[in-house]
Here is the input.
Amino acid sequence: MPFRLFDAPMREPSQFVGFSGSDLDRQSEKRDEESLAKALADPAARLMLMRGGRAYLKIAGGCFDPHFTPAESRALGARLEFSVLLGFDAEGPRLAAPAGVEPEDLPPAIKAIDYRSVYVQGLLRPADLGALAQGASLLAWHSSHRFCSRCGHESEMRHAGYRRLCPSCGTEHFPRTDPVAIMLAVSGDKCLLGRSPRFQPNMYSCLAGFIEPGETIENAVRRETLEEAGIRLGRVVYQASQPWPFPYSLMIGCYGEALNEDIHPDFSELEDCRWFSREEVRGIIAGKHEAGISVPPAGAIASHLIRSWAERDD
Ligand SMILES: [Zn+2]
Here is the structure.
């Protein structure tokens, strides 16, 4: 078999999902102990501010602007010494910082909006949404990893937010990304969708679960599908990934070839799980399903997996 790398699409599918559009130059190879101070001293520096799972956005003329100057950030109580450097765009450095002022104390021209709504409602440009995911994930990791997991001493943020160093035992800690497998099982002209009790009424989606230590992506896809639905999968193929800042996951989207069709749902995870024909899924996507069933909004990786499969003719 020839090596077929160049049959890959010019725009890989990951580019079509939300939170994936960051165009910042991270300059990760240049990060050092001076990077944060240098970036903050740049007059072109702009910060994204976040607190409690919400992004602070300026509203002007019906548009949302996520960028604050260092002075504006301080006025909102942000502690810039705890900011993280996201990277650089054509204008200058881009950072993220924990905001200080509570959402209810914000001036009227600034709103605190939860990340999910920012994403579902399309309030930001794809590039800014990608930067938001990066900042939200990093800030969440710092706030939940203040203490050294080796000796328990309080650790310190280093390298513009990409490390923590324990001053007591010298251990360095690095930001986490938690991989989650999300998959669409397919059998002939049908796909498998499930409903978690946490979903909004009538919504069905792909199955998903955390990849465990020592497990390949493909084996995690097979294990989760078997555990949640009783469906055994043969071939598994990767399709796309999506940064998912809740709090710092990477969703890894795959298709799987089902080897049986008798579903045995795990009712501790799912309240329903069933096969849908391609025609039925096309109707769902068009908003015309007779029982009012829906799938996640465009931009979600589950939606991308479902739509890409439904739109195919094979
Ligand atoms: Zn330590």
Observations:
- The chain has a mean pLDDT of 95.
- The longest strand covers residues 233-244.
- The first helix runs from residue 35 to 41.
- Residues 148, 150-151, 153, 166, 168-169, 171 surround zinc ion (CB under 6 Å).
